[in-house]
């Protein structure tokens, strides 16, 4: 299950960037949100020009965001 509706609509790096920042809003604490927002802003693949590689990066980033949000949700249920 993708973390937010619209994951299947992410096809460009800019769409991915905006999508990941929206995912950060679902994190429970402000500190956690700021940490991941900073990490998103630091990662740059602007020199990538291979469309297949860009799609691999997008798929991996969405999967990583899904993993983080699921981990946070599980911790909230346990607490």
Automatic annotation (TrEMBL):
Coiled coil: none
CDD domains named among the record's database cross-references: Complex1_LYR_LYRM9 (cd20269)
Organism superkingdom: Eukaryota
InterPro entries named among the record's database cross-references: Complex1_LYR_dom, Complex1_LYR_LYRM9, Complex_I_LYR
Domain Complex 1 LYR protein span(s) in chain numbering: 12-65
Family: Belongs to the complex I LYR family. LYRM9 subfamily.
Designated name of the protein: LYR motif-containing protein 9
